[in-house]
Amino acid sequence: MTTELDNQTLALSQAIILAGKWISGRQWVPATGGNFSARLDKKQCLVTASGKHKGHLCSDDLLTTSWTDQELICDGKPSAETLLHTQIYDLDESAQAVFHTHSVQATVFSRLIDAPSYRFNGYEMQKSITGNTSHADDVRLPIVNNSQDMRLLAAEVKTRWQDNPMPYAFLVKGHGMYAWGDSIETAKHHLEGWEFLIECELKRIQLLPLLTDHIKQGNGA
Ligand SMILES: CSC[C@@H](O)[C@@H](O)C(=O)COP(=O)(O)O
Ligand SMILES: [Zn+2]
Predict the structure, then answer these.
(1) Is 56 annotated as a binding residue?
(2) What is the count of structural domains for the chain?
(3) In the 8-state DSSP scheme, what is residue 148?
(4) Closest Cα to atom 4, ligand 1: which residue?
(5) How far is the CA of 188 from the centre of ligand 2 (A)?
(6) Cβ 201 under 6 angstroms from ligand 1
(7) Residue 183 sits in a domain of what CATH number?
(8) Ligand 1 neighbourhood includes 33 CB (under 6 angstroms)
(9) Whole-number Cα distances in Å, 17 to 21, 24, 60, 185
(10) 65 CB near ligand 1 (under 6 Å)
(11) Is 214 annotated as a binding residue?
């Protein structure tokens, strides 16, 4: 049993380290921003240690952490935002991995929107988010206000979830994105899908004031 757990921990650590290199390569975790985790069981996960560069993680930077409600038990200093990860695991029993990123596009976009969520519609890539089957359907990305108090932020996520289960991601205003999935691979797909959708929408918003009827009508004969 112990050997089995060690092998599972080792495999998940390696997968998170690789994901960190990929995410860092996309410029989504500058400096020591971002944090990652993978579920070990119902109330235990492997989470990145606080203050590490997420593109250069080693296996010692992945800490086994258990929790009950908002109490964390860990031999070490887990991510300052671990409570958001554990909140997601508690709210979504299917969640197996959580990635938190600080991309420029998600950070800027979240600051432009003065509403609790943003509606995406018309993008084929909406189908990269589990449960979405058409570009023609709406998918709303929640935006929660930032706070340095993780208990407060986790409680806010819980309240918002109870109103509307979240589409495997949410934005924290002026801060970044949380994305998750039922495996490390799916969590990466959700992260990449949402980053793509945000980038498209941000570009569309930027270009809208420059759009002329001439361009709209196909740029002439
Ligand atoms: C570079 S400061 C960013 C932190 O305040 C925080 O938002 C973050 O994402 C990383 O915190 P960490 O404790 O390393 O997991
Ligand atoms: Zn952060």
Answers:
(1) no
(2) 1
(3) S
(4) 33
(5) 17
(6) no
(7) 3.40.225.10
(8) yes
(9) 6, 10, 11, 13
(10) no
(11) no
Angstrom distances, CA of residue 168 to CA of 104, 115, 177, 209: 20, 19, 11, 32
CA of 43 to the centre of ligand 2 (A): 22
In a domain, 216, yes or no: no
Burial zone of 172 (CB within 10 Å; 0-12 exposed, 13-18 middle, 19+ buried) = buried
Residue 180 has pLDDT above 80, yes or no: yes
87: part of which helix (H) or strand (E)?
Answer: helix 82-91
Q: Cβ–Cβ contacts within 10 Å for residue 82, how many?
A: 24
**Which residue range(s) make up the domain with 118?**
2-210
Q: How far is the CA of 195 from the centre of ligand 2 (A)?
A: 15
Cβ of 31 closer than 6 Å to ligand 1, yes or no, is: yes
Condensed to tens digits (0 to 9), the pLDDT of residues 103-140 reads: 999 999 999 999 999 999 999 999 999 999 999 999 99
Q: Is residue 49 part of a domain?
A: yes
pTM (2 d.p.) = 0.96
Tell me what the mean pLDDT of segment 194-209 comes to.
98
Q: Residue 221 pLDDT more than 90?
A: no
Confidence at residue 146, expressed as pLDDT on a 0 to 100 scale: 98
The complex scores an ipTM of 0.98
- 13-68 per-position pLDDT tens digit: 999 999 999 999 999 999 999 999 999 999 999 999 999 999 999 999 999 999 99
Q: Which ligand has an atom closest to residue 76 CA?
A: 1
Q: Is residue 42 part of a domain?
A: yes
What's the 21 CA to ligand 1 centre distance in angstroms? 17
Task: Give the CA dihedral 197, 51, 93, 70, nearest 10 degrees.
Answer: -130
The number of the ligand 1 atom at minimal distance from the alpha carbon of 32 is: 1
